[in-house]
Amino acid sequence: MIEFANLTKRYGKFAAVDNLTLSVKPQEAVALWGVNGAGKTTAIKCLLGLLRFDGQITVGGCDVRRQGRAARQLIGYVPQELAFYKEMTTVDMAQFYARLKGAPAARIAPVLAQVGLGEQGGKRVGALSGGMKQRLALALALLGDPPVLVMDEPTSNLDTAARSQLLHLLLEVKRGGKTIIFSSHRIEEVETLADRVAVMEHGRLQFTCTAGELARRVGLRTQVKFLVPGSQLDQALAILQGAGLQARRNGVGVIVDVAHGEKARPIHTLGRANIEVTDFELE
Amino acid sequence: MNVAIIWTLAQKELGDALRNRWFLLYTIAFAGLALALSYMSLAGAGIAGFAGFGRTAASLINLVLLIIPLMALTVGAQSLAHEQEQGTLAYLLAQPVTRPEVFLGKYLGLALSLLASLGLGFGVAGVVLALSNGSGSPGAYASLMVQTFLLSLTMLSVGFLISALTKRAGVAVGIGLFLWLAFVFLGDLGLMGTAITMRLPVDQLLWLSLLNPLQVFKMASILDINATLDLLGPAGIYAMQEYGDRLRPVFLGLTLAWIALPALAAYVRFHLRGDL
Predict the structure, then answer these.
(1) Predicted confidence pLDDT, tens digits, chain A (283 residues)
(2) CA dihedral in degrees (A177, A182, A186, A189; nearest 10)?
(3) For an interface test with B, which of A46, A73, A85 has the most B Cβ atoms less than 10 Å from its Cβ?
(4) Is residue A209 exposed (0-12), middle (13-18) or buried (19+ Cβ within 10 Å)?
(5) Could you give the strand order of the β-sheet that contains A54-59, starting from the edge strand earlier in sequence?
(6) What is the DSSP letter of B184?
(7) Domain boundaries, chain B
(8) How many angstroms separate the first and last alpha carbons of chain A?
(9) Taking CA atoms, what residue in B is nearest to A101?
(10) Does A234 lie in the same domain as A100?
(11) In this complex, is the C-beta atom of A144 within 8 Å of any C-beta atom belonging to chain B?
């Protein structure tokens, strides 16, 4: 459905994306994974025809450069940073983009309802919360019922509750049969949505893997801070280190560096030694 | 090119302009001053013997020369740069639209908003004159309105060019204000200084002044109202003697060139600018 063939985007001598070749099958959800500056957003902007590039990108067989409109007609886009006309109402905004996409006006109300904005139609876009704006971006992307959804860090600016709500919506959209490509550096987002992950570093595709393999393949680790009674602090540190965990003392607690999926291991280790964990937090 | 998309974009631009405080301020100022001028021309009818539509039209020329270029340059300068700065331009171009459609839609919308603003100013003053049985030619008055609309399009095109060349709305508006000063004041002063120091012959003086679209507007408008350019001095007398009836198409051609060339340059720049 989406084909990147030798995509290269240079800014002077710097290659933001370097020879990316990637194929996304119909109804597949692929995450572009990498740290900031890995080239994820640049690749997405090239896909949308917003940047000049070398190589070729096709969407549904349409060349992004030569048949830009036809390619974008197949795409619904959810940007990272919301850039809306803040003075327009939600419904006016939806009507404006529906007309640009050639979508019937009758589709506006059900799409707004689908993302939970059915009651917000008369509200100014500038007055919507961050979560609502991102759901509006999703609604606008779905207006033309496109087969492809392109998202750039869709939950990066949201709080936990709004993120969870949007992820739930996106999962529904995915189950509806859309082909999805999105950039992310959030493991929970990738594990929830992606079938496959393309790991990028310094503009180059390093490898692809399943979402379940990602944490192990990239050596994803998390730092967890545990609080234990002060009298047992030194004993807890020794037990954790004795169990092969990378632990160090930090003020009144212990910080443990654990692999993704092993965050509960220090709790069990300390529990077996009858040391009570009074609290913990992810660093 | 999809006409429905261009019209959708134009309608949005028109709506935005009508919500823009600066645009409303210019419109109200222009309408208020045009109204005041029409009252003054009626009040002085018995003294000057040149009243109603003709006198108001003559007075409006100076008002138009000050306000309309400022208004059109400012909205034109903000057009693309502001949207690029806000990120809305990239989002818009990520939709199934093309750059030519976006450019034409924005230009058409702003041109219509300028027409609406001018229509209000000229309309209010015209209604007062008509209700007061003002004498003179309504045709000359209507002709001035057309000339003014064309002038606003020249400045809108220049504004678009500035906007296409810059990425920040503040910088674009700053350049627009400088150009307004240059067109309105510095151009006249520079021309006078050049004419004196270089002892320019009258034909060169005429053609130099015609490089400024505001001078073209002034001459075309005076010619419509007065049927002669004698009151502009030696250059005006020379123009009438040398070109006579050919002046009108020359003025129209120069004005259309000032509309088309900067707009075309802005379009090429916008179209060729690869990255957003």
Answers:
(1) 999 999 999 988 898 999 999 999 999 999 999 888 889 999 999 999 999 899 999 999 899 999 999 999 999 999 887 777 778 889 999 999 999 999 998 999 998 988 888 888 788 888 888 888 888 998 999 998 999 999 998 887 777 777 888 888 888 888 888 999 999 888 888 888 889 999 998 999 888 888 777 777 777 777 888 888 888 888 888 888 888 888 888 877 888 888 777 788 888 888 888 888 888 887 6
(2) -10
(3) A85
(4) middle
(5) A14-24, A2-11, A54-59, A62-63
(6) I
(7) 3-272
(8) 39
(9) B96
(10) no
(11) yes
Task: Give the DSSP letter of residue B211.
Answer: T
Residues A110 and A59 in one domain: yes
Q: Range of A102's domain?
A: 2-218
Q: Which of B231, B44, B215 is nearest to B136 (CA)?
A: B44
Q: What is the C-alpha separation between A185 and A32, in angstroms, rounded? A: 8
Chain B nearest C-alpha distance from A207 (Å): 28
CA dihedral B138, B225, B142, B75 (to 10 degrees): -150
Distance from CA of B49 to the nearest CA of A (A): 51
Residues A235 and A157 occupy one common structural domain: no
Q: Please judge whether A83 and B90 are an interchain contact, meaning their C-beta atoms are less than 8 angstroms apart.
A: yes
